[in-house]
Amino acid sequence: MNIVDLVKFDFVPSGADAGGALSSVPRTSPGSAPRRGYNAQRSLLCAFTCRKSFARYFASARSVQAAATGSNAGMSSNPYPFPKQANPTPHHIFHLPRGATQKDIKARYFELVRIYHPDSAIARHHPPDVAQAHFQAIKRAYDILQGRGALVDGMDAPHPTAGMRAREPPSARARRRPYFDDVKADERWTERVVVGGLLLTVIALFAQTYATKQQALSEAAARKRSARREAEARIGRPEDLVLGHDGISSDTALPSSRTQSSTNDVSRLNGP
């Protein structure tokens, strides 16, 4: 028999009741006394079960209230709550005035990192993506206040001394860099090296192509001059000259046998 079945029975008080409730119970038969005792036992069992259920309910309610109280206490213990506006400025995130010094900014950055780190107790009250967004916003705001970052998402201008810090030597900036700052180092020098290497490669290819072309042109000109000299030397030899019937020399080169016969013919025509 479950608790619902027990509750359905009417409660009949036992003889221990102080109000003399037994006088109100009709005694019509000898079996009424056992019936009253059975009902009283079931009523006591139902009361005991309900008492355990209510104790368990109140214990769980107290635990939930304690957890909520602890959560509210953890949130209220945050001295630097994250701004609720859409695009908070770096000074709003750091809860500092615009005239704050670099020492104050650095000290406040350490405190904010300790509070808003994704593994901290306060950050665990937020969803993981919200906690990570808050942490990244704090780092970006610190970069802007240090003069190392650009304006992002409506953030205000960097500190007035950002230009002076940019002209400082690298050693001074390295001494001022905090230990918790895991911002990547400036990698612009690697980009410059890559661009310089590409430019040198293009210049080397162009120079090699130009030199090869010039060498080919020089060799062609040399072959042409050599052929011309050979042709002039060959035309200038007496055995290569053939006189025409009109006495004008011809540049046609003939074999030696034909040249000899042509010479004899010319001698016969001219006479003794």
TrEMBL record:
SMART domains: DnaJ
Composition skew (Polar residues), residue ranges: 70-79, 249-272
Compositionally biased intervals (Basic and acidic residues): 228-243
Record key words, sorted: Chaperone
SUPFAM superfamilies: Chaperone J-domain
InterPro entries, alphabetized: Apopto_cytoskel_mod (IPR051938), DnaJ_domain (IPR001623), J_dom_sf (IPR036869)
Protein name, per record: J domain-containing protein
Taxonomic placement: Eukaryota, Fungi, Dikarya, Basidiomycota, Agaricomycotina
